[in-house]
Amino acid sequence: MIRPPHVGLPDKILTLDDVTVSFDGFKALDGLTLSVDRGELRCIIGPNGAGKTTMMDVVTGKTRPDHGSAWFAQDIDLLALSEPEIAQAGVGRKFQKPTVFESLTVFENVELAIWGPKSFWKDLVARLTRAERQHIDDILDVVGLAAQRAALAGTLSHGQKQWLEIGMLLMQEPDLLLIDEPVAGMTPQETERTAALLRSLAAEHSLIVVEHDMDFVRSIAKRVTVLHEGRVLADGDMDQVQNDSRVAEVYLGA
Amino acid sequence: MSGARRWALIEQDRAGTVFLAVLAVLAIASPILNQLVPASSPFHLSAYWLTLIGKYLCYAILAVAIDLIWGFGGILSLGHAAFFALGGYVMGMYLMRQIGARGVYGDPVLPDFMVFLNWQKLPWFWIGFNHFWFALVVIVAVPAALAWVFGWFAFRSRVTGVYFSIITQALSYALMLAFFRNDMGFGGNNGFTDFKEILGFDLHADSTRVALLVITAGVLAAGYLACRAIVDSRAGRLFRAIRDAESRARFLGYRVESYKVWIFAFSAVLAGIAGALYVPQVGIINPSEFSPLNSIEAVIWVAIGGRGTLYGAAAGAVLVNYAKTYFTGALPEVWLYALGTLFVLVTLFLPRGLVGLGTLRRRTLDAGPAALAIWAIRSEVGASLESKLK
Q1: Most CB atoms within 10 A, among A7, A35, A107, B8?
Q2: Residues of chain A whose C-beta is under 8 A from some C-beta in B?
Q3: Each residue of B305-334: pLDDT tens digit?
Q4: pTM of the model as a whole
Q5: Which CATH architecture has domain A12-252?
Q6: So what's the ipTM on this one?
C-alpha cells in the first residue's frame, strides 16, 4: 500500500519526559527531557556514552526505561507498544551499522519496507500493484540505486547500503525517522549527497539524526541538541551550541 | 532483472522442473515395472525396491521440510524427526485399529499390546482412530499444534541459533523417553507393528505398495511446490530477510515471530505427513524414530544435497539413504565414518551441496584462474606481513 497524505496532525512529533534508563547501575539516560516538532530536522550530538543510541532504543521500543514517558505525535504512548507496533505507528529507524537484507535484491529490500498492516497470511498472497512498483522505483531513483535494482543487497558498497536503508525508511513512510550516523564510512561526495537527501526529506517527515561528523551536522541542522551523561547539556543552533562553554568542555575538546 | 540473479532464478526453475519430471517418471514407471513387467524379467521392480524407494521418498519429504526452515530462514531444527515420528505414530494408531480381531490375542477392539498390559478398555485418546479421515486430521493437527506452541514460546522469547537447535534436540529426546513408557498407551519400546491393511487394501500386496509409492511421490511434488510458493511469496522473502537482519525486519513493523511460527509449523506438518506415509510402507513405528540422531542425520542429508534449493535437500536424502542401504549391507562398520567424512567434505568444499556442483564447475571454469591468482596474492601478502611482524 502507498500511504495517503496526512492532514491536521499535532505539532509535537516526539516528546520524551524525564526518561531514565540504567544498565547495572550505570545511567545511560538520566532524566532525559526532549521534544521534537513535526517537520523538524534535529541533530543530536554528544560524546560516546552520552546516551544517543539508548535514546533511539527507547523511542523504537528496543529498550524500556526505568521511568519517564515517551509520546509519539502527542497521543501515542511509545512505552506501551512493541517494536513492530511502534514501526507501524510511524517511527522508522536506521541503524548505526548499515543493516539491509543481504540475500535479497535491492528492489526486494525496498518492497519489504512497504507501508501498511502486515501479517503472515496477508504476505503469503500479497502482490505488488503497478503503483507500488512505480513507487519503489521512484524511491530507488531518489536514493540513487536504480541501476542496482536487481543486484543482491549484499554486493553493494558500504555507502550504497546506507542509502538503501534510507530508501527502505522512505518506503515505510514514517512520520519520524531516527537516523544513526548516516555518513559513517562515506566518502566526501557520498556525504554531500546524503546531506542533500536528508534535507529534502525534512519537509514531509520529521528527522532525528545522530552524527559525529561536525561538518555534516553543520550542513544539515537548524537545531542541535547536545547530550551528555544521559541528559540534555545544550540546545540551539549550531553556533550557539559551539559557543557554549560547557559543550566545548565535554565534547568539542576546548 | 539482469546478471547473476536472473541466472540463479532460471537455474532454480530448470532444476525444479527436472526434479518434478523425475518424480513424474518414477510415479508412472514404478507401477508399470512392478505390475506389468513379469517377475522373471530383469526390468521387474520387486517389492523390496518398491518399499525402499517409497522410504527414500518419505525421507525426501522430511528433508524438504527441514530445508524450508533451515535453508531459507536459517532456523536449524535438530528435532524434526520428532514431527516425522508423531505423524508416523498417528498413522500407526489407525493401522493398529485396522487389525481388529486378527491380532494374536484376537480382541476385536484392543490392540495386542493393550491386551498384554491387561487393559480393559480403549484409552480415550485412541477413540476415533478406526476412521481413516480422523487419522488424517490428527496427522496434520498434532505436529502443527506442537510446532506452533513450541515455536511460539521459542521465537517470542527470541531464542535463535544454536540455542534453538539444542532445545529442539531436547524436545525430541523428551518425546522419545515418553514414548518408551508402556503406560503412555503407545506400545512402549515395541511401538506398533504387524499391520494388516490400509483402507481395506492388503499392506503386503505389491499393488498397495506401488500405490503408496505413487502417493508419496505425489506428496513430495506437492510439498515441494508448496514450499516454493511460500519461499517465492512476500512472506517467504521476509523469512529470508529475518535470517539476514531480524531487528531490521522488526523495525519495519513485522512481528517476526509470527512469520517464523507459521513457517515452522508448516514444516512440521510436512514432516508429520512424511512420517505418516513412511509407517505403512516400512510396517513398523517405535520410539527409536524420535532418536535425536535421526534428526541430525536428516540435517546432514540436506547439507549434502544442498540447502536453500528444496530439490537439493530431496536429492540429498535419496542419495545418502541409498548409500546407507548399500554400505550397511556391504560394509556395515564403514557407514558412519563414510557419512561423517562426506559431511565434513561437503561442508568444507561444497557449501552449496551436491547440487551446487554444476554451478560451481561453471563458475570456476571462467573464474578459476582469477580465483587462483587472488589466492596466490593473498597468501603472498599474508606471508610478507607475517615476516614483517616478526
Answers
A1: A107
A2: 60, 62, 82-85, 87-88, 92-93, 95, 99-105, 108-109, 111-113, 118-121, 123-126, 149-152, 165, 168, 172
A3: 999 999 999 999 999 999 999 998 888 888
A4: 0.89
A5: 3-Layer(aba) Sandwich (3.40)
A6: 0.88
